[in-house]
Specification:
Shape: elongated
Largest sheet: 5 strands, mixed
Strand content: 35-45%
Mean pLDDT: 80
Number of helices: 2
Distance between the termini: 46 Å
Radius of gyration: 20 Å
Length: 167
């Protein structure tokens, strides 16, 4: 067991490029292999920006527990909190993570929103003659929700369909 695994949890924000959840393996034949998983919320027919940590794309760290059992970020889909998403990662066990993506629509119009999930394996630099075998079992539970907050109009009383939250 390495010193790093004694301090850091198995799952965490370890990617060098994207906000998401990652796991670095420690098995002898898999040492240094990183599994990355990201959530990409978007409004249909717009420029969807991946939650890149190296360039500004409207992603902001939002909340974190000191043991990394929970952390989250907010991503602006439309500027000034008109449409945004909250993405959170919660440890369920050493082998399981809950990924929750919520999209909030504060605009006056209904929006067609979607959530894409991406995963990748990042391999370490291998010297010639090195063999690498990767066998892993991972559980990721996905939860997505969409919220529309209806705006009241001053000219007419709101209809019953405008006053309830649409999901």
């Amino acid at each position: 067991m390495s010193k790093m695994s004694e301090v850091m949890p198995k799952w965490g924000p370890y990617s060098k490029k994207y906000s998401g959840v990652s796991r670095v393996t420690e098995h002898e034949t898999e040492k240094g292999v990183r599994f990355d998983f990201i959530s990409l919320p978007a409004v249909s027919n717009t420029d969807a920006k991946a939650p890149n940590v190296t360039i500004p794309v409207g992603v902001h760290p939002w909340d974190v527990k000191s043991d990394y059992s929970f952390y989250s970020y907010r991503q602006d889909l439309e500027w000034k909190d008109v449409i945004y998403s909250d993405v959170s990662f919660t440890k369920l066990s050493d082998e399981s993570v809950l990924v929750r993506t919520e999209i909030f629509n504060n605009s006056e119009l209904m929006q067609n929103c979607l959530v894409n999930y991406f995963s990748s394996l990042q391999f370490p630099f291998l010297t010639s003659g090195t063999k690498l075998f990767f066998f892993a079992s991972t559980n990721i539970l996905l939860v997505s929700s969409f919220s529309h907050i209806a705006k009241k109009s001053n000219s007419m009383p709101p209809s019953p369909s405008e006053t309830r939250t649409r999901v």
